[in-house]
């Protein structure tokens, strides 16, 4: 998995991220890998319980209870499944380089250590010890409100989501949506079309934009539009841990 991530066209992906705040990676995971991750989720047992469905997970969240939308997700527990851990480790190095260029452009002093293990040590020292990779499950009528995945003082500025279900076969609707709130301007929306196994890399909180008076920051949020039929599963790969 690390070699697969390293072999991506990172110059092209960075161009997309700089232009739109998100970049699509086609066919990152195989159909079999997607199916294996979906199977990890387990039965939903309705929406009355918030107990994790297996020892793989530390908690289960029903979105409607918190005003997050409709649907549910489960945070993995440590130790992470090997595929999830390898994705997290593999994406860290190239995204770290992009994050440094973004922070330099926005005048942010934060820099990140050379390895993801060292970065997690920083998170854990600050009390952010709970793993954040998660599996999300939606059915007809479910959606995810626009939000930012901020879990404490340490926030890595880029993250990855991978669609595990096939649009048009497993579900309809459920598009991945980003919004960009620009200073003194109306917000801009971006829809990223994904098929099973595709990933999207996107800005968590802020990104730099070149304007007529230099670089300025825009605020990013992401969500999922209403699922109209079927079931939709997604893997979220967040690089910082939570308090």
Strand/helix succession? HHEHEEEHHEEEEEEEEEE
**Gyration radius from CA atoms, angstroms:** 17 Å
Number of strands: 14
Largest sheet: 8 strands, antiparallel
Helix share bin: 25-40%
Unreliable runs, pLDDT <50, ≥5 residues? none
Strand portion, in percent? 25-35%
Number of helices: 5
> What does the overall shape look like?
globular
Compute the average pLDDT.
94
- Helix/strand class: alpha+beta
Distance between the termini: 28 Å
Give a verbal description of the structure.
By secondary structure, the protein is α+β, with helices and mostly antiparallel strands. Helices cover 26% and strands 33% of the residues. The chain contains 5 helices and 14 strands. Strands 1, 2, 4, 5, 7, 8, 11 and 14 form an 8-stranded antiparallel β-sheet that branches. Strands 3, 6, 9, 10, 12 and 13 form a 6-stranded antiparallel β-sheet that branches. β12 and β13 (214-224) form a beta hairpin. The chain starts with a helix and ends in a 6-residue tail after the last strand. The model has no long low-confidence stretch (mean pLDDT 94).
List keywords for this structure.
single chain; 243 residues; alpha+beta; 8-stranded antiparallel β-sheet; 6-stranded antiparallel β-sheet; 5 helices; 14 strands; globular
């Amino acid at each position: 998995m690390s070699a697969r991530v390293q072999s991506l066209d990172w110059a092209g992906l960075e161009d997309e991220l700089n232009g739109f705040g998100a970049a699509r990676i086609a066919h990152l995971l195989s159909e079999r890998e997607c199916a294996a991750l979906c199977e990890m989720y387990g039965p939903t047992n309705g929406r009355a319980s918030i107990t994790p469905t297996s020892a793989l997970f530390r908690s289960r969240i029903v979105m409607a209870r918190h005003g997050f939308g409709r649907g549910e997700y489960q945070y993995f527990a440590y130790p992470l499944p090997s595929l999830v851990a390898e994705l997290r480790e593999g994406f860290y190095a190239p995204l770290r380089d992009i994050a440094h260029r973004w922070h330099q452009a926005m005048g942010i002093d934060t820099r990140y250590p050379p390895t993801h293990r060292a970065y997690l040590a920083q998170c854990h020292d600050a009390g952010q010890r709970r793993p954040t990779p998660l599996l999300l499950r939606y059915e007809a009528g479910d959606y995810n409100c626009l939000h930012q995945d901020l879990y404490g003082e340490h926030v890595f500025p880029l993250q990855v989501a991978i669609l595990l279900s096939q649009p048009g076969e497993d579900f309809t609707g459920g598009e991945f949506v980003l919004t960009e709130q620009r200073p003194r301007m109306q917000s801009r929306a971006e829809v990223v079309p994904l098929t099973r196994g595709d990933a999207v890399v996107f800005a968590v909180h802020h990104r730099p934009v070149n304007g007529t008076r230099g670089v300025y920051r825009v605020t990013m949020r992401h969500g999922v539009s209403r699922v109209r039929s079927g079931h939709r599963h997604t893997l979220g790969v967040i690089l910082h841990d939570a308090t």
